[in-house]
């Protein structure tokens, strides 16, 4: 971390800052040239918040050089992390596709979709039992019975299951039953929940918050990892911008950024990003081309009857067709799918 | 809600949609003119999600006419709600000021600040015991002992206390001890927590999420109210934009919008919005001038030693001086403070 | 266009609005059901501005059904437009790649890069003679002599040239010398310039404004087309968001949206979007996979010596390698490159 | 400017960078401590672009310490600039109010409004003759005849006139006839136009671009000032965010920021920001309370008949009433109005 003093800062103020940092165990490289004094702070600066340091009015700017995350940092772990989710490896050469409906609705629906997506080549299945809806009057998901149906679908197809957790009070059940526990965009900075998940050893799918920077997103992964659980997979799902044509704006450059900064796998959710089913295939192809480690795609056997998000769901036939194209693109960029 | 069919939509598709909505108990006003057919949906459309309806490809657009919230809706409750917080009434002619440090740090600190802000005319005091920090390595707040110190400060000064809840597992204690329970921006859509708060009758201070629209913010209030607790106070605290000079962009037009759409009180937090102490007085004055029902301002007796957010804290003397100006502006616009 | 009256709107107000619109030549489909009255406005509503109509306080909402653009509208021109740029056809099955340096700097530089990109398979060449820089103290481009060097490079390689216009006072020269005239993001709503360009018949490359919606972007194309020039090519180049890791956020869903709404070709500029050379290849591949009609990529033979934007330029070898991968992806999605 | 090298950067690379900067006349303070080498660049760094410097891959970060603007910089001009506009001084203790319709429509309209706003206490009058409209099919303003009507209104009332320029080809006429030439948000980075305006000595009202940072906005002022014209007044008019309830989001913290960074006057346009007439008075009061140097407010004698932006115009009576409240708030904060 670098601290730039104001040109006219009194030496006592500078010394006060140096003393404060040395008291916390940091070493200071002081540079006083023709310009303002510059303090290079040496040590583990992840505990320091530039915003808090700015409190001294004689400081002009504070620049973080090292990223504020450690366990998620590629600098300290150059190789890609590969996370095992019920036998499916996410983060390696093989790209993995998660598919399924937004919500679990009935046994027929979830088992039917599970079979369809498996046949089309999906590697894991998704389905929401607990649903975060903007309105308290919208369908909130089946809850625990939905989880039971997901288990039945897994038993039928062998596909590991991915579903969202909204509250730590069902964590024991999720740890027992779910293969990949999803944290939704709205809970990306629910730190109490992240800490609890960090105390398990379950794979966690951490969606990027609605308006989270890449750094904040990785810091949320760091919350989980700091508690001991390093099985974190990042998921880009579109960010909030001024554009209203799509529900969110899919940020594929974030995939490049997150993979540069961190060793964690990064997958993409084109369905929630666009909110428009007809755009999903094009965005899914782009996500593979950009180098994501996988996709999570909404597929529903009867979108018009879906209890939620039907408008962004593909029908199984369209999904199967898409899988073929995705395989082709993966091959061109030297990956498998 | 109004559904506009595509110009060439088959009559069967239109009828299918009408039948589906009638089955849910809605009445349909059908208009077929020279243009496309238009369906006016009559009934309580708060249960309908326009995005979900768009699944039918023959629909051109869906327009919500009624707002999706009910209990928070000014249309059904034209008078301003006034919420009693430990005897202090928020939402009436009298504007109320909440002041105090970002975090509770020591007995001396919190009691000292409490006395200062009381003397300066503050009506309630704030102080964080549980702190949502971007980094797991930053100070996370004192936790329960911090809450005990807040109670001591209340005993000394008589000021009701406001503090943030991060997890429902401390809810019973908060209900017992806290006068106004704050939900932070990062938990604005933590629906599990909102529902739990809705089952109490405690006043809740609901901060606007980092990138929440005014409608989403009120919908989060609706989550609490739908469970029975109507004691909700909204708090604008700046939104995320592309501008980097300030930490967030204070959106004072949101105060006007929220008060137009809802009967709930709306207060403003200029400290978190700007993140720069020297900007707080100007923004506080603007917030009073725009017609907010109160303010929440960070005050610290020694900002440079603050464990968090010192850079946005006012010293007690500056706060006292500001209170005088705020009173003057309140008078001009026909309010008291 | 649909106008929804407030539930309690007096009939005279409604009639006043109807009379006003009929006086402008529109027909009105009036629907008065159990709910509020709804006015369907039939006619060419592209001349109406919903914001202006909202002036009547008895109107609840105004909904545009038809898009506000006509000549650029795919609804009235279902087939893809193909624009001929110096013999290179943009908008058909063949994807086209424009490559070259940010600025023209010297004869050697521009001719050298032109030869390199031609050898690598580029179809057109770019190079800025007039540069819009944030600072008046930064290099502003070579101006007219730069244009002469571009012409020399064209003479040497046969590649059509693409360069940016910043002011209509050089328009005659541009019309004579340039194959594809670029309008930069900052001038996307410089309507005086757009109208002047609309009076030529030169192909125009219209970059999306920094914070323009897809609709506003197409409306700017409409400004050019309304004057008679239908040779417009759209270019997505990243939008402004809160994310700071990349210079802008590349919005590939905008390619899908623009091609759905309009028949005009859409190309992508991954170099300006990211602002980071190492991210350009991944984003270029994604842009091809998503179905763009072409790319515009910065290539410089010595990025470190570049007078502007070296940080986002590829070296010729890296560009040549990328072209191979792009061809492979194009083939998978049924296009040529 | 501070350049931080990567920890493992070879000494030759560092030396290459130093040599390059020294060749441009800069002095370098080199600091090599326990951490990475840090280069302090001494000299007029406003000519350097951090983005361009980042081209060397051995550079970790580049931090600008000095702001990139000079003539607009408060550091070199600590006192507030006061600009004389036809005898009205903008930027001093006295706050100034500009009022009038969006567009000039008829002689009766503009003279009528001019008289009304003068009587209510406005100090200057506005009216658009050339209108930048999103659609080429919307009313584009009366053009030159509109300017003539503005002059008549000035002759009748004595109020200086403010109107927007869209193209340099009418500049001579504007210099002759207009008291304060407005550059609209869409042309804030039309550098050709800014340079031309910089070669006059007319007062310029520079609106903040739709998605411009405070720094970019001041850099556009710098473009005008670098050519010699220091009579620039900044105008905050709302920025583009994800919020859709208001047309734009008024950013009052930008007033504080711009006045801290620059000595130029800053006024506020609450009408274009909100786009909703009923919100204008509250926002105008907030703008005065925050310390703006003036306001520009849309007033129309018959908003429903306005050819543009009637929905955000106040009627003269409401404007007169507002002026009284504004005076009261100005007094409280130690200003006049």
Automatic annotation (TrEMBL), chains A, B, C, D:
Keywords (A to Z) from UniProt: Transferase
Gene3D superfamilies in the record: Aldolase class I, Phospho-2-dehydro-3-deoxyheptonate aldolase, domain 1
Residue span(s) of domain DAHP synthase ferredoxin-like: 1-67
GO biological process, one term: aromatic amino acid family biosynthetic process
Superkingdom: Bacteria
Domain DAHP synthetase I/KDSA as annotated: residue spans: 87-327
Record field: transmembrane: none
UniProt GO MF annotations: aldehyde-lyase activity; transferase activity
Protein name: 3-deoxy-D-arabinoheptulosonate-7-phosphate synthase
């Amino acid at each position: 971390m670098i601290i730039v003093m104001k040109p006219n800062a009194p030496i006592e103020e500078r010394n006060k800052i140096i003393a404060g940092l040395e008291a916390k165990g940091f070493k200071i490289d002081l540079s006083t040239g023709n310009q303002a004094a510059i303090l290079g702070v040496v040590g583990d600066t992840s505990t320091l918040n530039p915003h808090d340091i700015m409190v001294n009015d004689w400081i002009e700017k504070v620049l973080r050089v090292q990223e504020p995350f450690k366990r998620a940092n590629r600098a300290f772990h150059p190789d890609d992390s590969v996370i095992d989710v019920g036998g499916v490896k996410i983060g390696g050469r093989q790209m993995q596709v998660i598919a399924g409906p937004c919500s679990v609705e009935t046994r027929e629906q979830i088992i039917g979709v599970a079979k369809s997506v498996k046949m089309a080549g999906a590697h894991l299945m998704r389905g929401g039992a607990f649903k975060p809806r903007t309105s308290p009057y919208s369908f909130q998901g089946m809850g625990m019975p939905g989880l039971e149906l997901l288990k039945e679908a897994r038993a039928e197809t062998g596909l590991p299951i991915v579903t969202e957790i909204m509250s730590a009070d069902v964590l024991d059940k999720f740890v027992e039953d779910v293969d990949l526990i999803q944290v939704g965009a709205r809970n990306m900075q629910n730190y109490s929940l992240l800490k609890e998940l960090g105390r398990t050893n379950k794979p966690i799918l951490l969606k990027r918050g609605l308006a989270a920077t890449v750094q904040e997103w990785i810091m949320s992964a760091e919350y989980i990892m700091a508690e001991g659980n390093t099985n974190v997979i990042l998921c880009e799902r579109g960010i909030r911008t001024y554009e209203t044509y799509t529900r969110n704006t899919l940020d594929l450059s974030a995939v490049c950024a997150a993979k540069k900064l961190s060793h964690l796998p990064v997958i993409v959710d084109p369905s929630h990003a666009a909110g428009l089913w007809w755009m999903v295939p094009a965005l899914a192809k782009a996500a593979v081309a950009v180098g994501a480690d996988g996709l999570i795609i909404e597929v529903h056997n009867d979108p018009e009857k879906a209890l939620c998000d039907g408008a962004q769901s593909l029908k199984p036939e369209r999904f199967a067709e898409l899988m073929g194209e995705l395989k082709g693109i993966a091959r061109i960029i030297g990956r498998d799918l």
